C-alpha cells in the first residue's frame, strides 16, 4: 500500500473514530435523560 | 388583542416575510429552489431540521397534551437519538454519494421505476394531509381570538402561506427557519417563565410541580408494557425509533433539509445535534402544559378552554350548560382549596394523606364532569361546529387571558412563524417530489433550469391549495399533535420498510418490494381500523411486514419456475 492510500485510509479511520465518539455520546445522553426523567417521575408522584 | 400586540405581531411577521423574499432573489434553477444550492452549514441544517418538525402543533397542542394526559408523551421521542445515529451511518452517505434531489430518486436506481412512484405517492398522500392539519393549527389561533369562522380563516392562513412558500424556495426557507426557530426557543422560555411568575405570590415552581405531580401530570416515564397503551417507554424507544427513522430518513420534508448541506459532515452534525436537543426541548414544552395545570388549579380551572364552544353550548342547551358549569364550579373551588393545602408545609403526615386522597378524588370527579361535557359537545357538534376536546385551546387560553400586553402579540407571532417554517418546508418537499419523482420521470425531455424553477413554483402553489382544502376537515380531529403522528404512523412503516430492504437486503428486487409494500399498507390499515395496537407500533409492523413479505415473495417457487 503506497503512502497516499495509507494517508487516505488514516483520514478515513480518523473520521470514523470522530463520528463513533459522537454516536456513543448521543447514546449515553439518551440513557442519562431516561435516568433523570425516571427520578423526576418518582420524586413528584 | 391590544394595539401594541397587533403591532408586535404584524411587524414580526412582516420582518420574516420580507427577509424570505429578499433571500429568494437570484434563483435561476431548481437546484437553488429545491436544495438551496447545497451550501448550508451544519447550524442552518440543524435549525432547519428542528423548525420543520416543531410546527405550531408542537407549541399549541403540546402543552394541552400534557395538561390532559400528563407528560408521558415525551417518551414518544426516546427512539429519536438512536434513529439519528442510524441515519448518519447509513442514509446520509447513500444520498450524498448519489447526489439526489429527493429520497425516492435512490429507489429508482436500487429497485425500479414503479417502486419509486409508489413510495413517492405514499409520501405525497401522507405529507399532503399532514400539511393540511398544519395549516389548520394557526387558523385555530385567529378563529378563537376573533370569533372568525374557522373555514374562512383556513383560506386566509393558507393564502399567506402560499405567498411565502411560492417566493421562498429551499434557500429562503433554510435562512428564515434559522430566525423562526430562534424566536420559538425564546418564546418557550418566556412562556414557561411567565407560568411560574403568574402563580400566587406565596407559591413557587416547587409547589406547582408538587400539585402537577400529585395530579398525575408528571408521569414522564411509564414502564408498563401494553401494546394498546399509547405512550410508554417501550413504544417510545421501539415504535418511536422506527417512526423517527422513517420521518427523518425517508420523508422528503426532512431529507430535503439535510440535502441542502455543504458536505456530508455538515449533514451529519446537524442530524446528530438534533438528537441531543429534541428530547429536552420537548420536555420543556410538555412541562409548560403540566405547570399550566397547576396554575389553573390555583386560579380555578376552567371547565372547557374553548370559550367559543361554551358560548354556543349555552345558546343550544342552556339547562345542561348551567347544570354542568355549576357542578364544575363547586369542584373547581374545592380543588383550589385542596391544592393550597397540598403545598402547606405545616401539615402532619396523616393530614397530608387525607388532603392528598381528597385532592385526587376531586380530580377524578372533575374529569368525570368534563367527560360528560365532551359527550354532549359531540352530540351537538353540527350546531356548535367545534371539536369536543379542548386540548388545542389550553395554551391559547392562557396566552389570551394572562400574558401581559406585547407578549401576547409576540407569542401569536411565534405561533405563525412556527407554522410557516414547518409548512413551507413541507410544501417545498411536496413540490420537489412532484417535480422530480413524477413530472420529470414521466416526461423526461426538454428540461431547462428555468422550466424546472417554473414548475417547482406551480407545484408549490398547487400543494398550498391542497393544504387549505384538507385544513377544512381538520376541525374534527381532536388533539392535533396526536392526529398528525397517527397519520404518519399509517404510512411511515411501509416507506421505511422499502428503504431498509433497499439498504440491507441486496438480493431483493423491485418487483418483490413493490408488492410487499402494497400488502404491508393494507395490513397496517387493518391493524389501525381494528385498533389491535396503539399507533406507534404501526411503524414497526409496517416496516417489518415489507421486509418479511419481500423476502417471502423472493423465495416464491412460481416466480423461480417462470425464470
Describe the structure.
The complex is a heterodimer of chains A (45) and B (563). Chain A has 45 residues and is mainly α. Chain A is 93% helix and 0% strand. Chain A has one helix and no strands. Chain A is rod-shaped, with a radius of gyration of 19 Å. The termini of chain A are far apart. The model of chain A has no long low-confidence stretch (mean pLDDT 82). Chain B is an all-alpha fold. Chain B contains 23 helices and no strands. Chain B has helices at residues 3-23, 30-35, 42-53, 56-69, 80-98, 105-110, 113-146, 150-197, 205-214, 233-250, 252-258, 264-299, 307-316, 318-342, 349-379, 381-384, 394-402, 407-442, 449-471, 480-504, 510-529, 537-554, 557-562. In chain B, helix 1 packs parallel to helix 18 and helix 5 (80-98) runs antiparallel to helix 12 (264-299). The longest helix of chain B is centred in the N-terminal third of the chain and has 48 residues, at 150-197. The radius of gyration of chain B is 24 Å and the shape is globular. The termini of chain B are far apart. Classes of the chains: A mainly alpha (45), B mainly alpha (563). Chains A and B meet through helix 1 of A and helix 5, helix 9 and helix 12 of B.
Amino acid at each position: 500500500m503506497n503512502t497516499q492510500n495509507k494517508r487516505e485510509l488514516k483520514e478515513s479511520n480518523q473520521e470514523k473514530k470522530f463520528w463513533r465518539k459522537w454516536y456513543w455520546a448521543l447514546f449515553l445522553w439518551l440513557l442519562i435523560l431516561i435516568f433523570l426523567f425516571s427520578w423526576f417521575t418518582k420524586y413528584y408522584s | 388583542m391590544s394595539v401594541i400586540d397587533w403591532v408586535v405581531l404584524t411587524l414580526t411577521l412582516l420582518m420574516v416575510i420580507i427577509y424570505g423574499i429578499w433571500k429568494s432573489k437570484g434563483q435561476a434553477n431548481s437546484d437553488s429552489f429545491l436544495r438551496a444550492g447545497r451550501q448550508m452549514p451544519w447550524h442552518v441544517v440543524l435549525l432547519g431540521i428542528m423548525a420543520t418538525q416543531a410546527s405550531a402543533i408542537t407549541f399549541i397542542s403540546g402543552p394541552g397534551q400534557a395538561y390532559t394526559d400528563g407528560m408521558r408523551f415525551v417518551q414518544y421521542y426516546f427512539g429519536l437519538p438512536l434513529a439519528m445515529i442510524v441515519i448518519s451511518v447509513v442514509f446520509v452517505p447513500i444520498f450524498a454519494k448519489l447526489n439526489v434531489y429527493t429520497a425516492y430518486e435512490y429507489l429508482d436506481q436500487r429497485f425500479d421505476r414503479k417502486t419509486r412512484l409508489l413510495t413517492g405517492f405514499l409520501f405525497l398522500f401522507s405529507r399532503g394531509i399532514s400539511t393540511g392539519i398544519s395549516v389548520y393549527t394557526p387558523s385555530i389561533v385567529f378563529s378563537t381570538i376573533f370569533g372568525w369562522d374557522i373555514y374562512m380563516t383556513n383560506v386566509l392562513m393558507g393564502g399567506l402561506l402560499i405567498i411565502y412558500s411560492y417566493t421562498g424556495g429551499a434557500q429562503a426557507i433554510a435562512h428564515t427557519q434559522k430566525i423562526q426557530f430562534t424566536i420559538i426557543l425564546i418564546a418557550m422560555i418566556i412562556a414557561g417563565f411567565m407560568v411560574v411568575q403568574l402563580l400566587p405570590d406565596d407559591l413557587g415552581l416547587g409547589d406547582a410541580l408538587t400539585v402537577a405531580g400529585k395530579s398525575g401530570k408528571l408521569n414522564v416515564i411509564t414502564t408498563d408494557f401494553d401494546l394498546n397503551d399509547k405512550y410508554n417507554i417501550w413504544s417510545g424507544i421501539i415504535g418511536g425509533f422506527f417512526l423517527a427513522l422513517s420521518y427523518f430518513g425517508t420523508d422528503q420534508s426532512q431529507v430535503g433539509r439535510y440535502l441542502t448541506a455543504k458536505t456530508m459532515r455538515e449533514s451529519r452534525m446537524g442530524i446528530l445535534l438534533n438528537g441531543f436537543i429534541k428530547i429536552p426541548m420537548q420536555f420543556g414544552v410538555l412541562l409548560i402544559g403540566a405547570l399550566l395545570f397547576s396554575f389553573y388549579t390555583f386560579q380555578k380551572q376552567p371547565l372547557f378552554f374553548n370559550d367559543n364552544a361554551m358560548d354556543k353550548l349555552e345558546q343550544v342547551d342552556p339547562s345542561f350548560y348551567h347544570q354542568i358549569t355549576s357542578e364544575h364550579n363547586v369542584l373547581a373551588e374545592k380543588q383550589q382549596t385542596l391544592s393550597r393545602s397540598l403545598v402547606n408545609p405545616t401539615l402532619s403526615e396523616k393530614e397530608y394523606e387525607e388532603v392528598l386522597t381528597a385532592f385526587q378524588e376531586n380530580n377524578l370527579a372533575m374529569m368525570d364532569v368534563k367527560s360528560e361535557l365532551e359527550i354532549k359537545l359531540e352530540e351537538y357538534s353540527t350546531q356548535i361546529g367545534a371539536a369536543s376536546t379542548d386540548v388545542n385551546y389550553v395554551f391559547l387560553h392562557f396566552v389570551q387571558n394572562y400574558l401581559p400586553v406585547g407578549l401576547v402579540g409576540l407569542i401569536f407571532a411565534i405561533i405563525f412563524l412556527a407554522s410557516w417554517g414547518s409548512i413551507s418546508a413541507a410544501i417545498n418537499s411536496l413540490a420537489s417530489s412532484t417535480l422530480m419523482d413524477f413530472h420529470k420521470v414521466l416526461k423526461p425531455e426538454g428540461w431547462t433550469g428555468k422550466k424546472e424553477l417554473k414548475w417547482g413554483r406551480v407545484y408549490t402553489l398547487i400543494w398550498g391549495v391542497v393544504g387549505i382544502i384538507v385544513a377544512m376537515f381538520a376541525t374534527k380531529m381532536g388533539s392535533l399533535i396526536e392526529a398528525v403522528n397517527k397519520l404518519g404512523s399509517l404510512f411511515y412503516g411501509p416507506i421505511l420498510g422499502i428503504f431498509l430492504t433497499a439498504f440491507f437486503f441486496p438480493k431483493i428486487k423491485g418487483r418483490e418490494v413493490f408488492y410487499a409494500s402494497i400488502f404491508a399498507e393494507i395490513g397496517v390499515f387493518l391493524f389501525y381500523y381494528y385498533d389491535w395496537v396503539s399507533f406507534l407500533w404501526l411503524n414497526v409492523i409496517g416496516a417489518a411486514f415489507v421486509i418479511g413479505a419481500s423476502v417471502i415473495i423472493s423465495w416464491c417457487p412460481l416466480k423461480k419456475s417462470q425464470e
